[in-house]
Amino acid sequence: MEKPKNQLNTPGLFYLVATDLAAKEMLAHLLQTNQAVTIEPKWHYVPFLSLTDNLSLANKKDLPLEELLSAVQLEPTFLKKPISELTSLEEVKVQLLLALLLEKPVLILETLSQNLQTADVQALLPLCSQLAKQFQLSIYLMNEDERLAQTPYITKQ
To answer: Residue 72 CA to chain centroid, in angstroms?
Structure first.
């Protein structure tokens, strides 16, 4: 599914087939030009830092963390949780939070359903759709499961 260039700045949650080479090239270009950030199934954090310290590394503009925590459906007490105890869904939410802190206009979610349970994916899709609207983001969900494209949370082209 190739996305027209004028839709790159369109807010929404978009589905892309993981095997679509044209889409991968477009997203690679966005990453290379520092316009996008990738949300991966497993979060790569600085191991000797706490969760709060890892988030602080991305918060260069001193954005209000409590508001952004709420936007990704995390409580302020979440920051006290040891990183080793994070669930797969919480790791994705932390990466979404990091992307908001970095103020990237494009987020790329790569094959997240590999590490997430069905209930987690069901919680993540409406969250991403809401974030796209609230923060004017273009969020691309790359996945092999084309049934995800039929969910009501995916922006229709």
So the answer is: 10
Nearest Cα residue to 13 out of 154, 156, 157:
154
DSSP per residue over 76-142, as a string?
Answer: GGGGGS-GGG--HHHHHHHHHHHHHHHT-SEEEEESGGGTS-HHHHHHHHHHHHHHHHHHT-EEEEE
CA distance 23 to 76: 36
Q: Tell me the per-residue pLDDT of 40-71, one tens digit each, with 9 for 90 and over.
A: 888 889 999 999 999 998 888 888 888 899 99
Please, are residues 153 and 128 in contact by the beta-carbon 8 Å criterion? yes
CA 115 – CA 41 distance, rounded (Å): 6
pTM of the complete model beyond 0.85: yes
CB atoms within 10 A of CB 6: 7
| Secondary structure of residue 14 in the 3-state scheme | strand
User: CB of 104 within 8 A of CB of 35?
Assistant: yes
DSSP conformation class of 4: P
| First-to-last C-alpha distance (Å) of the chain | 10
